[in-house]
Amino acid sequence: MKPIILDSYLAMIRNGVGANMFRSVYAEVDGKRKDVLYDGVLSCAFFVSSVLVIFGLTKRSHATVDGTVRDLEESGWRRIRKPKPGAVLVWEMRRYQDGSRHRHIGFYVGHGRAVSNDTPTRVLIEHHWKYRGERELDSIWWHRKLYKR
Q: What are the tens digits of pLDDT across the range 87-108?
């Protein structure tokens, strides 16, 4: 048996739609227990990095987009110009109602579609890869291990 990494990886991503298992990561902050993902509001990086770790494509899971992007760079991922199924998408910085600013991260699954965490519902959704034209991409990432063999 020879595993087909790209097909298995894409299946895991697509099968995650509707899941809320990436909603919470607890840490001690200023001596107090805190859910640093705010019950799923900031779960995008944890989802993406966890899938990547399962397939041996990064070193560890992360709670932030910046940490995930650093790990992509250190793990052999390269920027590409056009998305292809399995690519990691990083969207531009956006200011939220509370004044905080965050980038967003998810996966390109093909045919103009992406899968990422949805902040309002706090679950994984499939959506247009540019959020219906509302959010620009900062970068697109690809790893050579995802080529079909």
A: 999 999 888 777 888 899 999 9
Alpha-carbon separation of residue 25 from 18, 45, 70, 112, 136 (angstroms): 18, 11, 19, 30, 27
Those residues with Cβ within 8 angstroms of residue 125's Cβ, 6 or more apart along the chain or in another chain: 17, 18, 115, 116, 117, 118
Residues constituting the chain: 149
Cα separation, 60 vs 70, in Å, equals: 11
Tokens of 138: 């900062």
- Domains of the chain in sequence order: 5-146 (3.90.1720.10)
- The packing angle between helices 44-54 and 65-74, to 10°, is 30
